[in-house]
Design brief:
The chain contains 13 helices and 19 strands. With 446 residues, it is of the alpha/beta class. The protein has 3 domains: 8-125, Rossmann fold, CATH 3.40.50; 148-375, pyruvate-formate lyase- activating enzyme; 381-442, Nucleic acid-binding proteins (OB fold (Dihydrolipoamide Acetyltransferase, E2P), Beta Barrel). A 6-stranded parallel sheet has the order 2-1-3-4-5-6, sandwiched between helices. A 6-stranded parallel sheet has the order 7-10-11-12-13-14. A 5-stranded mixed barrel has the order 15-16-17-19-18.
Amino acid sequence: MAVGSSKTVHIISLGCAKNRVDSEVQLGLLRRAGYVHVADPTDAEVVVVNTCGFIEAARAESLDTVLEAADLKVTGRCKTLVVSGCMVQRYGSELSQELSEADKLIGTSNIQDLPRLLASDQRLMLEEGRSFLYDHTYERSPSLGSHTAYVKVSEGCDRTCAFCAVPGIRGRQRSRAPEDLVVEVRRLVANGVREVSLVAQDLTAYGRDLTPPRRLWQLLRELRKVPGITWIRLLYAYPTRVDDHLIRLLAEGLPLVPYLDVPVQHVDDGVLRLMRRGYDGALVRGLFDRLREAVPGVFLRTTLLVGHPGEDDTAFGRLERFVAEARPDHLGVFAYSPEESTPAYSLHAPPATVARRRRQRILEQQQAISAGRLRGMQGRELSVMVDGLSPETDLLAAGRHAGQAPEVDGLVHLADLDRVDPGRVVRAVVEQTSQYDLLARVVPGS
């Protein structure tokens, strides 16, 4: 398509933060090709659904979203419906035959080719083996806001966790050069970004595939020198690779915020062996203790997987006790989904109803922990980064303190803010709490 055309486009991004980055790259490519982004999908002539194919529930959501988007051909201006992302990378051939609602399909391997696909008669564009990894030469179209952004430091994963289909979808790990990442972060900051969240399937494996090998802590030492960066946040750290270098950096303070997302999945030794995680429950407990001892005020997020093969009532009981003792600040819980081509697929797992019930029990347990933790913050003065107006009411602003990652960890609703400037950091005193959010009053003059 020639530059200067005025076709309108809207992208619906599903799944994880890494997928959101892919969507932003796709939109940047389309804008460079002359497309105009519209916020309302009913106004878009091209609608792109960037899918997730990680587990069955995600695929169901993706298919439902595709079918809803297909209705825009009747209720909106849509002429071309594109399905992209992990679900296409994993099931592209089948979807091409069965998903007649999609006009075009493109896998994660061919993100950079989306404008070319739209300009051609080709319907499916998919190369097996590995996913596309952008660099700083690709313009992204920010979708989180002007002040915060995810930065993908690597693509793919070299681990062989028994339950996980990601290596088969995204391929082996490939890290971006540290110089390339510094250039991107500098550009983001120059465009108004104040918070950068680093993401990867295994963030702590960053750089081990480079020549010469690099380490995450070395990258962080470079990124924190970028003038104007306020917060750097780390998502998806593998438990065995949270080393002393990284812990010392977290303890040194801003711009690296005292926050770490460490998906531990389980603490029962037998389940962890069947999961092929490469550690035991003692390592998980010791890691939480080390982080809390070494990093003042650290906020810990983790992810658990219940219902995996090998998880009996005793193993699940150990998981419940861990949550009660470790009291994570934030917690995500997934019910096991048997995935074709994964090592766990042939193993016997508890019934899905049991997995769902166990998931609900952990979530209820965490809700009480979270509410208690927030009550303990009442009266405290916090540094809060302003995001914009509160989703609850235009009378309040909304932001996040250092222990709240974008999209997943709740908000601080702000009273008495003189102006709503996204990215601005203010001091505020917590006055009320709820299960996940805080209400705070801005300190005058802050």
